[in-house]
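Archive maintenance. Older records in this collection stored only the sequence; we are now back-filling the structure field for every entry so that each record is complete. The fields below show one back-filled record exactly as it appears after the update. Entries are processed alphabetically, and Alpha/beta hydrolase is next in the queue.

ARCHIVE ENTRY
Title: Alpha/beta hydrolase
Organism field: Kribbella lupini
Length field: 261
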Amino acid sequence: MRSRFSRLAVAGATALALLAAAVPSAASAADKSAGTPKPTIVLVHGAWADSSSWNPVIERLRRDGYPVRALANPLQGLTSDTAYVASYLSTIDGPKVLVGHSYGGAVITNAATAVPDVKSLVYIAGFIPAKGETIGELAAKSTPPLPLISTQVPGGTEVSLDPAQFRSAFAGDLDETAATDLAITQRPANTKAVTDASVTEGFRTIPSWALLTRQDHAISPDLQRFMTSRAHARVTEVDASHAVMLSRPGAVTKIIEQAAR
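Back-filled structure field:
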């Protein structure tokens, strides 16, 4: 009997020792997982905006612990803008989530495959062109045409939105003062932005998410549905204008963080 109890005691002690050894390992694994750095969120604005249009989204992402970069998109043509963004991305170590609004969607589509560690693509009311397609061809499917003003500059022709119609075309769910400020500070885009053909399709190999804006008068919801369906993006629809990152920053942040996870 005593021998039996001795054997049980030894077995029990051995089991406890093994459990004790395993617990620190499990804890270490959990700590390692919890300590995994979050991907850098790279925000790329589109035409008639600038990087400050992301400010409400940046605030939320930073509060949630994400490193963020907001690029100043040159808006000088899809070919040159893609090269610029790809060069910038090459300076960022580790995983990256690329987020493009409007024309910025075309830029991230083309720049994504030029650098390593792009985890996902997020289109915010964005253009998603196929190879060989131009933004102009896609925009022609979005009616009515936008109220544009053309200006001749040394680098060609630049277009901007008519300030008098900026709110109705771009920012219908912002108050008049905010929309007027955006109209005044808008950055014009070179017409090469709509005439340069898309070269690569990042969405073919990189998981994609999209926020579709149902009150958009700049890129019609139907055109957005066509592009997001073709790209097999995970789509969330929201009642918002084209300026959704300002009118619904919470919804924009939510879909970015879904893609980041």
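Update note: The chain has one domain: 40-197+206-260. Confidence is low (pLDDT under 50) at residues 1-33.
Entry marked complete.
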